[in-house]
Design brief:
This protein has 332 residues and is α/β, with parallel strands linked by helices. It folds into two domains: 6-301, TIM Barrel; 303-332. Helix content is 46%, strand content 15%. The chain has twelve helices and 13 strands. It has helices spanning 28-36, 49-60, 66-94, 115-120, 143-156, 174-183, 219-232, 248-256, 265-270, 273-289, 294-297, 309-331; strands at residues 6-8, 11-13, 17-19, 41-43, 47-48, 99-104, 125-129, 163-167, 188-191, 198-201, 206-209, 237-241, 260-263. An eight-stranded parallel beta barrel has the order 3-4-6-7-8-9-12-13, surrounded by seven helices. Helix 5 (143-156) links the parallel strand 7 (125-129) and strand 8 (163-167). The radius of gyration is 21 Å and the shape is globular. It starts with 5 loop residues before the first strand and ends with a helix.
């Protein structure tokens, strides 16, 4: 029996270790190596709406008539899609694990209709990544959440394969959004996406790139919200993303209610051999605790009393704060 077998978004996975969308997954040969290293599934490098539109805009000035601009736009879009479809097809040939396509977008645009071709190319599922900050003065409360639902509906209207929604963490109430996504056909959610991290170079007096990789402290966000959401919206699957670094982190995520984890930074920092360490730690822990399957312990530490979650969080903060203050006084 495969002790690590799990189900995520309706897909059967040999184990819960999913390689998230990144430069790690932008070629079929790389994906083959990740598969051979023991990955349970692979999310391909994203097809970016912004990348397509920026390329169109950069070449628009060379076209002096509207029909030519429209032709150029469609040509670039079709070229990018063709490359992506080839990545899907080639990866499917070389890998015997689920291959999940990824669309990174911010609008319910026409190009989302390409989802049908992505399905026909052989993708086992599509992950939708809507990564955008809301900073407009004329913003209406709820518009961003509604955009997630509209894009999901658009994609679902074109495909029959599972659709996964990868969310950012800046929502007042992620649970209500997850419930609406489930009601509109989402098979799973991934918590959470990671924003570009800005920094400032004080010598050059210029903006620069901050920390590229996630850090282990980011895992706590996923543990909290998967623990809360999985106890209330329990018909949808969850994956933890961001901060999954140590081999033990996969155990923590599953205990909180996740069916899988998406990893990226830890693979960059430790090579694909980290996949084996994650799996080995899971098996060793399961053996020590007497579990024969992922399902037996998935969610046993999620939040049972959601109505009391605020009391619990505030109490834990006070407890932590008092203990820290006591420790500080002792050290002084």
């Amino acid at each position: 029996m495969n002790k690590l077998k799990t189900t995520f978004a309706g897909l059967e996975l040999k184990n819960p270790i999913i390689i998230s969308s990144s430069g790690l997954t932008n070629s079929a040969e790389k994906n083959k190596k990740l598969c051979e290293a023991g990955a349970g599934a692979i999310v391909l490098k994203s097809l970016f709406e912004e990348q397509i539109m920026m390329e169109v805009d950069s070449m628009r000035d060379s076209v002096y008539y509207p029909e030519g601009a429209d032709y150029l736009k469609e040509s670039i879009k079709n070229h990018k899609l063709s490359e992506y479809l080839q990545l899907i097809a080639d990866s499917k040939k070389l890998c015997d694990i689920p291959i999940i396509a990824s669309i990174n977008c911010f609008n319910d645009a026409d190009w989302v209709h390409f989802a049908k071709e992505i399905e026909q190319a052989g993708a086992d599922a599509i992950e939708i990544n809507i990564l955008a900050l809301q900073a407009e003065l004329d913003y209406n409360y709820g518009d961003f959440e509604q955009r997630h639902i509209d894009i999901l509906r658009s994609v679902k209207s074109h495909v029959s394969i599972p659709v996964i929604m990868k969310l950012a963490y800046r929502f007042t109430n992620p649970v209500i959004l997850i419930n609406q996504l489930y009601a509109n056909g989402a098979a799973a959610v991934v918590l959470f996406n990671r924003f570009y991290q800005p920094d400032i170079d004080i010598e050059k007096v210029a903006h620069t790139v901050g920390m590229v990789f996630s850090n282990p402290s980011e895992l706590s966000r996923s543990l909290r919200w998967i623990g809360i959401a999985s106890s209330v919206v329990d018909k949808i699957d969850y994956a933890a993303s961001g901060g999954v670094h140590a081999p033990e982190d996969a155990v923590k995520a599953i205990l909180s209610g996740a069916a899988a984890v998406e990893v990226c930074s830890t693979i960059y920092m430790n090579t694909s051999s980290q996949i084996g360490r994650l799996k080995d730690t899971l098996i060793q822990w399961m053996n020590r605790k007497g579990f024969d399957s992922i399902a037996q312990f998935k969610g046993i530490l999620n939040v049972k009393d959601v109505k009391g979650v605020n009391t619990f969080e505030r109490t834990q903060f006070l407890k932590y704060f008092n203990e820290y203050q006591g420790k500080q006084k002792f050290e002084e």
